[in-house]
Design goal:
mainly alpha
Length: 205
């Protein structure tokens, strides 16, 4: 974190036109560090700053991605705002260039609807359509996030074998990308599925 704070100072010495891209990269790195340390309020602040920086540059993809990311720490800080932030992200969907962010918008929107309002078949089916698309994403972190959402969807309908499989895939990808928060959430759903399928040995491990 100290290295990143130093980097923010050094960015101000760069030519003005080069600063935004470097600042956005640093904000994303710091936000992920805060998430991994469970510093959710700080993560939300960084993702919000990243979204604003991207908005100033007219970078809709990065702005929308940052908004989607900011909704997750909001679950711990101010859960009522999480849905509205997701709606903000979804409103930009038509202008997105990156299909993975578009699919993530759909999946996140459905996930939060189910998470807050209860399971509904049509929401779950729409979420699974988006999640299946995301299996083809190049970004391993996106695939990791999609896999734990898929694990959650399977948990909600008591398909615990499929939930374990998706959670393990998410954990594998999270280890590859080094983003602890994705690993943590995947482990939570893996444990949930193991307990409910009666595999207490696995749950304890």
């Amino acid at each position: 974190l100290q290295y990143l704070e130093r980097a923010f100072v050094l960015v101000e010495r760069l030519p003005e036109k080069d600063r935004p891209a470097f600042r956005m990269d640093l904000l994303q790195q710091r936000a992920r560090m805060h998430m991994s340390a469970s510093e959710m309020r700080a993560a939300f602040v960084d993702y919000t700053a990243l979204a604003e920086e991207a908005h100033q540059l007219g970078d809709v993809d990065t702005q929308t991605s940052a908004l989607l990311e900011s909704a997750v720490p909001l679950l711990f800080v101010d859960y009522k705002r999480a849905l509205s932030v997701n709606e903000q992200a979804r409103a930009a969907k038509a202008r997105l260039q990156d299909w993975t962010i578009s699919a993530l918008c759909d999946a996140s929107h459905r996930f939060f609807k189910i998470y807050f309002e209860g399971w509904r078949k049509e929401e779950a089916e729409a979420m699974m359509v988006a999640l299946r698309k995301l299996r083809e994403a190049e970004d391993a972190r996106v695939r990791s996030r999609a896999a734990w959402m898929e694990s959650a969807a399977h948990c909600y309908v008591a398909d615990y074998a499929a939930a374990c499989e998706a959670a393990e895939e998410s954990r594998r990808l999270a280890r590859k990308t080094g983003v602890f928060f994705e690993y943590f959430v995947a482990t939570m759903y893996l444990n949930w599925a193991a307990v409910h399928r009666g595999d207490l040995g696995m749950a304890l491990r």
